[in-house]
Amino acid sequence: MAGRRSAAADARPGAADAAARDPLDALAELLSREVERLGAHVGALYLPLPGEPVMELAVLVGLPRDFARPWERVGFSAPVPSAEAVRTGRLVWVGGEEEMARRYPRVAVAVPYPFGMAAAPVATPAGSGAVMLLWPGTHSTRLSPEETRGLTGLADRLAGELARAARRAGAPLRAGEEPRVVSGRPGGTEPPEVLAALLHRLPEGLCALDTGGRLTFVSPTAAELLGEPVDRLLGELPWTVLPWLRDPVYEGRYRAAMLSRQPASFVALCPPDRWLAFDLHPDASGLSVRITRARVAHGDAPAVAVPPPAPIRAGALHHILHLATALTEATGVQDVVDLLAGQIVPAFGGQGLALLAAEDGRLRVVGHHGCPETTIERLHRSELSAPAPEARTATSGAPAFFACRQELEHAFPARTGLWEGMGAWAFLPLVAYGRAVGSCVLAFARPHRFDAEERTVLTSLGGLIAQALERAHLYDAKLELAHGLQESLLPHELPLTRGLAAAARYLPGTRGMDIGGDFYDLIRLGRDTVGAVIGDVQGHNVTAAALMGQVRTAVHAYATAGADPAEVLARTNRLLTDLDPGLFASCLYLHLDLRARRVLLASAGHTQPLLRAPDGRTRVLDVPGGLLLGIEPAVRYPLVRLPLAPGSLLVLYTDGLVERPGVDLDDAVATLADQVDRAGERPLEDLADLLVGHAEQSGRRDDDMAVLLLRPEPAADPPR
């Protein structure tokens, strides 16, 4: 029966042709048809690369390939709409420039034009891909229900086509070596003689550009205004054939018109003194351009200098801006390596990466990805004077590109066999602030010819990487210093005290230097008395950590001298105002008498502690607070006396444990009290982990946090 069904299917008209047809052509036709039906002007289909967290651009509709070069390969972790659609499994809509800048600043910097964008995941036999559509800048900031259904339906139809192609081929469909590019609908035939004569009589020049930006029609008047014959202009890019249009600003206006599908204009100086106005009118087939003489007053003339003969193209410039924006997100050295490996290297089609720093006459591998371990071992600590491309690039500051293994081995025979499994290489100098700091090796699995624009972008990338690495090294050094300082200032362990169980935790914030001014301490004052302090110094840097150490030392000194909590805070406050560090601190200090079963407390603007009674009920203690430490020298702090039965639990904490954006502080403290209530009589170490664990679940935190738990117990010898 199966054989008969197959024969019947083959007998259908066109079945054999459909089976033999390139499946990418079928996908391109489907995408092109749906782009027009949904009123969009650009469409793109991404297919996953098996075995790698990357998807590749398979089909592009409505734009030339140059527009999409920064995103021909997109990592699943990249902060772009198509990758987010894959990660979340949901449709992503961006309604315009402002929303793009807010949600995807990296994309907004590279393509700062008005358009709406939607991306939806596409299920494929190899994993998730994505389909993306762009609408003109005049589109509503909302996606209509019909458009939403149309896009999700398109994703389903693409998934069906991909599944059928995989069954026919016996393997998932992959993107081609280059994306399949479908230009817009035909723009019509050349004008007849009568229309040509009409155009010639007009005082303004008219031109037509295709979607790739090449001139397809130039009226005689336009050629006269531009100063070049028609036959020299046809088929050329205006910013290539006309030296005075080579400023990236002018190509940028063309890109703006094509992406937004809205008219654009600019004024340019045709040497020596002819100012021309260009009005660009786009549609799916390209651009119509009207050229007129511009009336520019002498004082209002735009300051446009004739650019150098070979400036960087706008496409390359946008690519560099995209890369620069990405690298600004990296803080430490490992962040730079991860960003390059996960997002930037895949965008160029590379498979291997090695970052080498020049130190003491040798190259040190500071990060790598996708390279054989034997290669990394030979590169690490290799001499800068060695006859090797990575060393030559680092010392000369000149990049080197090798399109195949034969080229590399011909230039550097000593490097034969070092890069097994790779077929092409780009060796980029890392030059930061005018000095060479190392080299970056980008390796490709297959031979790869580097064109002039790609060499320009990669060379610029080397400079961006160098600056990012320099900042990252400085950040890591400061972070190591800050961590060392903080670890030396916080107690390594709490002192064992007879009749008292105690536990403490500290967590730094997840922003900035990963260091803060929160502190705690437990001070043994006598056989049955202890002091406990918790505080929060303003700031999240080395200065805050240093001041935290001064406050903790002062509290310790005054407490061991026999002062009560109110006097301890008053003396510490006077010391801080004398030092005048420019920072303030909140602080809560208590004196616990285990034999008398009482506690004395004083607070300098600190969050209120919690008390869990032996019967299991938890309440917020009302401790009157004075001014923060370090504001006014003559401040008195109220002293509070409370009974404290064995089995009671005191919870001291800093505001980082409870504060959340948009949540009232009193509500947050009440939530913490409820957590302590529900925790029951569990060991204090477990309770401390539970409380900070709840805070960690909130994700990114601006503030650090500290918690100190104290529970009086029946007198017993402390454990040894």
Could you characterize what this model shows?
The structure is a single chain. The chain is an alpha+beta fold. The protein folds into four domains: 162 residues, 2-Layer Sandwich (Beta-Lactamase); 120 residues, PAS domain (Beta-Lactamase, 2-Layer Sandwich); 152 residues, GAF domain (Beta-Lactamase), CATH 3.30.450; 223 residues, PPM-type phosphatase domain (Phosphatase 2c, domain 1, 4-Layer Sandwich). Strands 1, 2, 3, 4, 5, 6 and 7 form a seven-stranded mixed β-sheet that branches. Strands 15-14-13-18-17-16 form a six-stranded antiparallel β-sheet, sandwiched between helices. A hairpin with a 2-residue loop joins strand 17 and strand 18. The chain is elongated. The protein starts with a helix and ends in an 8-residue tail after the last strand.
CATH superfamily of the largest domain: PPM-type phosphatase domain
Look at the helices and sheets and give the structural class. alpha+beta
Rg calculated over all Cα atoms: 34 Å
Give the CATH topology of the largest domain. Phosphatase 2c, domain 1
Residue-averaged pLDDT: 83
Number of strands: 28
Which term fits the overall shape?
Answer: elongated
> How far is it from the N-terminal to the C-terminal residue, by CA?
81 Å
Number of domains: 4
Q: In which range does the helix fraction lie? A: 25-40%
CATH architecture of the largest domain: 4-Layer Sandwich
Number of helices: 23
CATH class of the largest domain: Alpha Beta
Main β-sheet description: 7 strands, mixed
Name the beta content range.
25-35%
Low-confidence stretches: 1-19, 298-317, 716-720
